[in-house]
Amino acid sequence: MRLNELSDESLHFRVQQLLAEYVEVIDDDRLEQWPELFVDDARYEVVPRENSDRGLPLAAMFCDSKGMLIDRVVSLRQANIYALHYHRHVLSNLRITQRSDAEVQAQCNFVVFQTRVQGETAIYSAGKYQDRIVATDGGLRFKEKRVIFDTYRIDSLMVRPL
């Protein structure tokens, strides 16, 4: 698939479907499928807005390959101990910011609600995604996903990807 051959509407729909699948595998706790949405040399980072605005490199979570994403999931499943909780993402305002034959850049807002075992639901994080997406034989995949969160503190251990 050549990205420039897609109409604006078709490209927007395909990017929206990739994002929907991304949040679905996180929210439905199918984290083993999460790395499959990225290319092998992908970059994934979760950055506080204040660092992003100031051009500071410090990230709350950083992975520079699909292998590191896989390691993150294995660690989460086998090594980390944390209180049971559920996430639910809400995405809005998807916009294609740039496109070429090789990649698409997109941005959208997100809110993540967290429900703990006691039944209490609260906003866990809010911010925006800045994505670089490429076409592969398996469909669209993330080359880079930059999660910029507006909330200045993380309420509890950041175990799951945002």
From TrEMBL:
<keyword id="KW-0223">Dioxygenase</keyword>
<dbReference type="GO" id="GO:0019380">
    <property type="term" value="P:3-phenylpropionate catabolic process"/>
</dbReference>
<dbReference type="InterPro" id="IPR000391">
    <property type="entry name" value="Rng_hydr_dOase-bsu"/>
</dbReference>
<dbReference type="InterPro" id="IPR032710">
    <property type="entry name" value="NTF2-like_dom_sf"/>
</dbReference>
<comment type="similarity">
    <text>Belongs to the bacterial ring-hydroxylating dioxygenase beta subunit family.</text>
</comment>
<dbReference type="GO" id="GO:0051213">
    <property type="term" value="F:dioxygenase activity"/>
</dbReference>
<protein>
    <submittedName>
        <fullName>Anthranilate 1,2-dioxygenase small subunit</fullName>
    </submittedName>
</protein>
<dbReference type="Pfam" id="PF00866">
    <property type="entry name" value="Ring_hydroxyl_B"/>
</dbReference>
<keyword id="KW-0560">Oxidoreductase</keyword>
